[in-house]
Amino acid sequence: TTDAVPFSPLKREDPRRIIAFVVDDLGLSAESMSQVRKQLRKFVTEQLQPNDLIAVIRTGAELGALQQFTNDSRLLSRAVERLRWNICSRAGVTVLPRFISDRYETDPEFNCGGSYGGTMNAMRSTLDALAQLPGRKSMVVLSDSMPIEDQTITFDGFVSRFPARNYSFMLQKIAEKAIRSSVVIYS
Description:
Layout: E1 18-23, H1 30-47, E2 53-58, H2 73-81, H3 102-106, H4 115-131, E3 137-142, E4 154-155, E5 158-159, H5 168-180, E6 183-186
Parallel strand pairs: 1-2, 1-3, 3-6
Antiparallel strand pairs: 4-5
């Protein structure tokens, strides 16, 4: 577009916003992903300021968070357009919760595994990258399904054979890391 904010080198002393948008494609429904893309497009076209450092980070992708921070609206727009619903998403196609059947948990074709861990790792890596930047920072986590605790799931008399996990401890560690790094987390 012709209204694109041109890329400009930043000086350390310039006031700026530093924002990491963590798009939890491992926890977003297909329905929500389209809304996330729409809102991030709007942010890039209408609210991006020349001194901002912004990153769009997917939880289901390779992490190199520090290299992704930029004030170039063209790069950010490209990152937003690449956002897609992840078939490994624990949220499914719609926002409504899905039932997990025996086939889903035992058939590798239907079970990507590790999606909670991927979300946690992406948040930790993003915080590590933000810690290296000066000043106050924000991490915006966009998700339909933030892991707090895995429940034992029943479906027509079937009880999951997988043990329940408590993710609140990991989330507490992420919150502590954010405090030490001067990062405010929004969800």
